What does this fold into?
Amino acid sequence: MPGPVAGMFFYLYLIVDIFCRKIVGWEVHERESAELAAALIRRAVLAEGCMLRPLVLHADNGSPMKGATMKTTMEKLGIIASYSRPRVSNDNPFSEALFRTCKYRPDWPRKGFTTKEDAQAWVKSFATWYNAEHLHSAIRFVTPDARHAGRDHQTLASRTSLHANARAQNPGRWSGKTRNWQPAGPVWLNPETEISAPEIGDAA
It folds into this structure.
């Protein structure tokens, strides 16, 4: 994230649950650090109530993600580590898509953030919108919060019924099938390795 002067950056630490696309943890800092990343992971796991549940955390190959503090924290929390494949630029499609959405928001400050507090306030607003209001195309246009809580099934069932009734009343308006409103299925990070888990995004 661009800082107030050229060459200065703030670092966005972010964890996204790839099943529901919910941002489950984020922080903005002025440096990259294994200790800061580990602290965020602890807070996210506690907030989500998934302590010692089977989890896989996928991260880049940067030193903060592979530091001793990070490894110790993950072991204590029962988290399995997964890392991007070397020299594969698009190995984090979920975080890459999320960061693209972030940077293309209309209120993204093109000239950078004046202070760390400004950056934190902006990310807080973005995360709230993304989780609670953004109708995500990859999960059948429901919000990440709704899918995370299991409320998407009722919403999608209502849409299925609505479209079926509309088609029955005026079949001439439909040239093919109605949109698929079945809940999105399992999500795999890399299908060949069958890894499905929260993913920690790169610094941006």
Notes: Residues 199-204 have pLDDT under 50 and may be disordered. Residues 163 and 179 are 8 Å apart (CA to CA).
